Amino acid sequence: MTRGVLWDSSAILALLDADDADHARAVEIASQIAGDRRPSFITNYIEAKPTRSWFANSDARWRVSGC
After folding, report:
1. pTM for the full model?
2. How many CA atoms, within 13 angstroms, populate the side-chain half-sphere of residue 61?
3. What is the pLDDT of residues 49-59, one digit of tens each?
4. What is the domain count for the chain?
């Protein structure tokens, strides 16, 4: 039985962005997964990771959104 692969959004972005630090590794792993004919899955679930700039602008965001 071949196990499927759930692709994390960071892996997908690294695969698509040639300038990403992990691009070469993502291409290598994607090629291996495709060569092994393993099923791949993605999800529309996205986890937002707050950054320093997000916190710096959080007051403005609250006022604009009315929260």
Report:
1. 0.61
2. 7
3. 555 555 555 55
4. 1
Cβ–Cβ under 8 Å, residues 3 and 38: yes
At 28-40, the pLDDT tens digits run 999 999 999 999 9
Q: Which residues contact 37 (CB under 8 A, 6 or more apart)?
A: 2
Block residue for tokens 């060569």: 35
Please name the residue that has the structure tokens 């529309």.
44
Range of the domain at 15: 1-47
Task: Extract the tokens encoding 33.
Answer: 């997964």
Q: Where are the beta strands (DSSP E) in 1-67?
A: 5-6, 40-41
